[in-house]
């Protein structure tokens, strides 16, 4: 397998844009990524297009990539449509990496886009609710009824985890305070106003113990990444950020074994030949505030049960020992499903280039992205872990 690197990145601001289409969002992100790589659409050999919910929200099915990219100069290229719940973007990157690493192509473009905002919020929430096995009954501890099925699922997991670790709601609020501070420094973030622990705790209860500020929001946006072989990059004088590992796993139908995030992390660490202590900056799937703390443990950033202590220490803050979600994460940067995994790579590439500005983790050399999605047998249905380095 050949070395593969990130050659160009681009993304739109994330937010609620009722007047924008999948085409508009895709075109902006693609344009930014190609300009950043100093290439044109003619230099792209194949395209991996990630989208999770357009069929439900906009009605566009089957040819989402071809229709969204028709005005970008990428028409006529091999375009693969990737749908894999919230992990669609990172799944598309995994396939692009494999395509270049195997020698099938010298270059590939990953595009992740989602338009979730809708005049009828029930349509948006309904899209999320489809990311489960609809024939699988909800667990007895899931208190459905908040209007957001996935927040009900996250709340049930959070309650169990609180009993197990001694965490309390203020620990989740600390995650949000850190996230909003990062978002305030990110011009692409959906939420850019800082907050306090008290404000987080006093925001409207969604699904106990999750308050409004502890939940990622509905949003729209697009992100794109140009990947290429090391030989191609050398010819174009592209500054290298290497993809050292990309691991994808799915949930076991009987719920046995380690969680998907744990298994994907183990595979990625082994592929990259590193361990958690070697990582400097992380973008992880904080669809709810408790999820960030749980993933601290899943990714080996701390020992089991030490997630609350890690957030309280400040080590995961901007510029910390292991900076986590310096983009603002899903909670503040936003969570347009198909774009999320690609946006994580955009942020980490900026961190490794040293161009993240006030969000920069000094001396960042190794970065990790964790993106998961859906629900199956009490676990996320899929998880992808990607490791980058200079």
Structure characterization notes:
The protein has 390 residues and is an alpha/beta fold. The protein folds into two domains: 4-119 and 220-244, Thiolase/Chalcone synthase (Peroxisomal Thiolase, Chain A, domain 1); 144-210 and 246-389, Peroxisomal Thiolase, Chain A, domain 1 (3-Layer(aba) Sandwich). It has 14 helices and twelve strands. The strands form two sheets. It has a ten-stranded mixed β-sheet. A two-stranded antiparallel ribbon has the order 5-6. Helix 4 (88-101) crosses helix 14 (337-353) and helix 11 crosses helix 12 (307-313). The mean pLDDT is 95.
Task: Give a short summary of the structure.
InterPro entries: Thiolase, Thiolase-like, Thiolase_C_2, Thiolase_CS, Thiolase_N. With 390 residues, the protein is an alpha/beta fold.
Strand and helix map with partners:
Layout (H helix, E strand, L loop, with lengths): L3 E8 L10 H16 L9 E4 L3 H4 L6 H5 L10 E4 L5 H14 L5 E9 L5 H9 L19 H17 L3 H15 L13 H6 L2 E3 L2 E2 L8 E10 H7 L4 E10 L9 H13 L8 E3 L5 H10 L8 H7 L9 E2 L4 H4 L4 H17 L12 E8 L8 E8 L1
Helix pairs in contact: 4-14, 7-11, 11-12
């Amino acid at each position: 397998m050949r070395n593969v690197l990130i050659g160009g990145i681009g993304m739109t601001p994330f937010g609620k844009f009722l007047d924008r289409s999948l085409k508009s969002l895709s075109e902006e992100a693609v344009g930014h990524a190609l300009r950043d790589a100093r290439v044109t659409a003619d230099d792209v050999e194949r395209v991996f297009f990630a989208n999770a919910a357009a069929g439900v929200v906009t009605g566009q099915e089957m040819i989402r990539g071809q229709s969204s990219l028709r005005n970008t100069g990428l028409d006529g290229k091999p375009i693969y449509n990737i749908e894999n719940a919230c992990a669609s973007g990172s799944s598309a990157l995994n396939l692009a990496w494999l395509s270049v690493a195997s020698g099938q192509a010298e270059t590939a473009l990953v595009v992740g886009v989602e338009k979730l905002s809708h005049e009828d919020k029930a349509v948006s929430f309904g899209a999320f609710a489809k990311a489960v096995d609809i024939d699988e009954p909800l667990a007895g501890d899931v208190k459905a009824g908040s209007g957001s099925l996935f927040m009900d699922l996250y709340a049930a997991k959070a309650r169990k985890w609180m009993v197990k670790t001694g965490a309390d709601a203020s620990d989740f609020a600390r995650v949000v305070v850190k996230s909003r501070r990062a978002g305030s420094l990110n011009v692409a973030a959906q939420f850019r106003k800082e907050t306090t622990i008290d404000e987080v705790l006093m925001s409207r209860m969604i699904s106990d113990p999750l308050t409004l500020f502890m939940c990622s929001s509905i949003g729209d946006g697009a992100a794109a990444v140009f990947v290429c072989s090391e030989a191609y990059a050398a010819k174009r004088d592209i500054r290298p950020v290497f993809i050292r590992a990309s691991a994808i796993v799915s949930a076991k139908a009987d719920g046995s074994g380690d969680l998907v995030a744990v298994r994907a992390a183990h595979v990625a660490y082994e592929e990259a030949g590193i361990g958690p202590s070697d990582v400097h900056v992380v973008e992880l799937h904080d669809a709810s505030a408790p999820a960030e703390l749980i993933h601290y443990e899943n990714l080996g950033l701390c020992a089991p049960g030490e997630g609350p202590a890690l957030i309280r220490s400040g080590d995961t803050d901007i510029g910390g020992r292991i900076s986590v979600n310096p983009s603002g994460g899903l909670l503040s940067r936003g969570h347009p499903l198909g774009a999320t995994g690609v946006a994580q790579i955009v942020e980490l590439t900026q961190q490794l280039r040293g161009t993240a500005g006030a969000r920069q983790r000094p001396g960042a050399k190794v970065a990790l992205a964790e993106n998961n999605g859906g629900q199956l047998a009490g676990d996320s249905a899929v998880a992808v872990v990607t490791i980058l380095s200079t």
